[in-house]
């Protein structure tokens, strides 16, 4: 995924399914470097982690 698509997803009101290593995640923010994002798993756990946006996939 690229930075522009991450920004579009963040500004969208739609529920867009994004995965990281096959696991469904929410994108919390695009980090200042434009190459990483802060995400957390969908579900009850709120643990956040920074990932390379090239490893995020939009499920269609």
TrEMBL record:
GO terms for cellular component: endospore-forming forespore. Its main location: other. InterPro entries: SASP_SspH. It is found in: Spore core. Keywords: Sporulation. The keyword Nucleotidyltransferase does not apply. Signal peptide: none annotated. The keyword Transport does not apply. GO terms for biological process: asexual sporulation; sporulation resulting in formation of a cellular spore. Induction: Expressed only in the forespore compartment of sporulating cells. Belongs to the SspH family. HAMAP family: SspH. This is Small, acid-soluble spore protein H.
């Amino acid at each position: 995924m690229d930075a522009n698509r991450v920004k579009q997803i963040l500004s969208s009101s739609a529920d867009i399914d994004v995965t990281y290593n096959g696991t469904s995640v929410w994108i919390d923010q695009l980090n200042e470097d434009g190459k990483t994002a802060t995400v957390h798993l969908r579900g009850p756990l709120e643990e956040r982690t920074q990932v390379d946006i090239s490893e995020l996939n939009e499920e269609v």
